[in-house]
Design goal:
125 residues; alpha+beta; Alpha-Beta Plaits
Length: 125
């Protein structure tokens, strides 16, 4: 069984403390970050943060002056910690024609997945 989350994308200046500012705004609102993936490209940092309550997270971020550049639904899948587990799941999704648009292995062997075909992804995880 998969847990559905809302992933918010926030574009940040590529500087020390930028992600800390975002994390602080979320923490101040009492919201837990379920997963985060952040990477820098060309002087910008793109942060993808996953939440159970995306609306509350968006409100906290925007209230602190951060612009949410995008959002998507994603699903956290509990995976076995063994060789081939990722291969089996991604092969099953590919066989159903699901093109993953975001994949991130989160803590405790939880895999965060997002795809354009959200309905098929939901039915398979």
């Amino acid at each position: 069984m998969a847990t559905e989350l809302k992933v918010l994308q926030v574009s940040l200046e590529d500087r020390p403390g930028a992600l800390a500012d975002v994390a602080g705004a979320i923490a101040a609102a009492g919201i837990n970050v379920e997963a985060v993936l952040a990477y820098s490209v060309g002087g910008q940092t793109e942060a993808h943060l996953a939440f159970v309550d995306g609306e509350a997270a968006r409100s906290a971020l925007e209230g602190a002056g951060h612009r949410v550049a995008g959002e998507r639904n994603a699903f956290v899948v509990q995976m076995e910690d063994r060789v081939g587990a990722l291969a089996e799941l991604t092969q099953r999704l590919a066989g159903a024609g699901v093109n993953l648009s975001l994949t991130h292995l989160a803590t405790n062997n939880r895999l965060l997945l997002s795809a354009d075909d959200e309905g098929t992804l939901r039915s398979l995880v």
